[in-house]
Known about the structure:
40% of the residues lie in helices and 6% in strands. It is α/β, with parallel strands linked by helices and 802 residues long.
Amino acid sequence: xxxxxxxxxxxxxxxxxxxxxxxxxxxxxxxxxxxxxxxxxxxxxxxxxxxxxxxxxxxxxxxxxxxxxxxxxxxxxxxxxxxxxxxxxxxxxxxxxxxxxxxxxxxxxxxxxxxxxxxxxxxxxxxxxxxxxxxxxxxxxxxxxxxxxxxxxxxxxxxxxxxxxxxxxxxxxxxxxxxxxxxxxxxxxxxxxxxxxxxxxxxxxxxxxxxxxxxxxxxxxxxxxxxxxxxxxxxxxxxxxxxxxxxxxxxxxxxxxxxxxxxxxxxxxxxxxxxxxxxxxxxxxxxxxxxxxxxxxxxxxxxxxxxxxxxxxxxxxxxxxxxxxxxxxxxxxxxxxxxxxxxxxxxxxxxxxxxxxxxxxxxxxxxxxxxxxxxxxxxxxxxxxxxxxxxxxxxxxxxxxxxxxxxxxxxxxxxxxxxxxxxxxxxxxxxxxxxxxxxxxxxxxxxxxxxxxxxxxxxxxxxxxxxxxxxxxxxxxxxxxxxxxxxxxxxxxxxxxxxxxxxxxxxxxxxxxxxxxxxxxxxxxxxxxxxxxxxxxxxxxxxxxxxxxxxxxxxxxxxxxxxxxxxxxxxxxxxxxxxxxxxxxxxxxxxxxxxxxxxxxxxxxxxxxxxxxxxxxxxxxxxxxxxxxxxxxxxxxxxxxxxxxxxxxxxxxxxxxxxxxxxxxxxxxxxxxxxxxxxxxxxxxxxxxxxxxxxxxxxxxxxxxxxxxxxxxxxxxxxxxxxxxxxxxxxxxxxxxxxxxxxxxxxxxxxxxxxxxxxxxxxxxxxxxxxxxxxxxxxxxxxxxxxxxxxxxxxxxxxxxx
Length: 802
């Protein structure tokens, strides 16, 4: 299933883990439309707890709450928000239902019913968004969510809220156009003093109202002794309506026991006595005793799940009784269960009372049974994710019970249940339950020693954190998942984790990988931190791949003022500014890119002639033009280098072909990590080529590269290269330079060689001596390989130097 979550497209994958990617433009949802009145009514009916079948329940009125009802409706009509506080069993939910029916037409978006049971403020904001807007398979990000709920104008009835203080203030501030009717117990933190929230406290019923409610619950008038017993119960229970409902169930059971002739004969023919006040104060065990076997079995399952009742449709499969669906109606009629959102749970203090009566003896085994059943049911393809989400509280309770039991096989069952339920919660957009389920599954997998499942849950936690914008937690979870899957050689899972981790790196500001996967990454880092701090942020991400070329020795160091050096040593991971001179240069000696970053010479590489840092290319203006200009300058530098290499190559018949000779320069190929000697030129002899200033250069014999002139030899020596004209690893001295240049028609080389020259054959031609003196190549600062004297010509004349 594919879900659009903000700027991400989430594909729920229960096998290898959910996949996440940037949402393509075609998958983005249009602005959601508001639900109409009929859709809101249908949604409200679907969110209510289902009516139990099999038992006809009496309709009990709301007594002595008319004053509170009118006051709450009046405050809501003024746009005020109200918090109703009362103990469990005081009738808060009944009062909220009555007030909600009075405020149906107060707001443009009507009345929205929400439950705060096991809900965080973020969960409630998303529930409010889903209740007002129709957006299937779409979960807005935080910014869009806040923007949307600010436009909601509704009366929000929020029952059983579990947070207060600053969290409640933030929740109310996010929805300024809504009026809230909130119910909470006294143990929930109170709102802050400046929250502008009205407080209404519910007290118990009066003695008269208590007796009236008891008669309605017993479905008959009370006898004199029963009225006296009810007065004592009212004093002990402080008038809570739930106690009188449970007391009415006790009177009905007593009456039914009195009608049984066999039971009356067992008691000596006398009527069954009334329960004591202590028993009436804790009536759960007394009420559960006369119930049927299916109802008692349902109570045991509920106690094992911490008070959460499974849906009535699951009771036949759990208790192996085909008529167990009616058990929930029996429990509701006795006041042992109460609605909690879309399901039922045990009423206040009932769980503890039943546990004391022995209903918790087989908690671990029953939780294991529930987990196995829900794992099969949630993973069935015919079950919709929304149905699984309705059972979220029971599933989470089963996971909690299994993890705490520490019995054999329970952790494995928890892993199976978590893997089956987590994808359904994600697809149903119930992400609060999704997170809790995945965390329980990760702990269960750790206890069971199931590394593959533990890696899956780490991956799901990382994807969830990425969807919610928590990048640090997403990175930690995804790295843990990738590490575990790497140990297991799980290639598919590792690929899914690395894709998600790459997206985390793209979204992380200031990350080293920011910008590697898109334009939405963080700030890019260059080599010059000072210039990067003051530069304007880039609006787009641009990746420039710059090839490595060998650094050259400046001709100015050889006494040639008319020639300017071209620097082209570019680190592979940086984006430097490349500059070029207007005059071509000759390469002499040898150097490596490891001798340090090159320095820009002219001002042609930067904008406005300003020099750039050696490790960063400042992007300003139109990015495309800057990239094109940099590529052009780099091409000119490379072509000039190649032309110069061809111009300075010559022929020397006295030098052996396997050594680095004078007049040669060491060059670095693109596919070599070190420097090697130049390749020999084709043919047995080479015609002299004109110099850059029009002076013919000498021709030398072709030579072959030698292993002795590799960069490793010169680097291990620990000193600079020799400048005496003789390589350190050669046995024969080089031949003297020629005295006269060979005359030929000077033609400048217009195209660099594109293929490797063939191996020379035959005897080399003896060079003609020249009258110029040999010049040694300085290598103090740039050369790291063997070098030798080479000949050069004057830059301004076309005649040999005397």
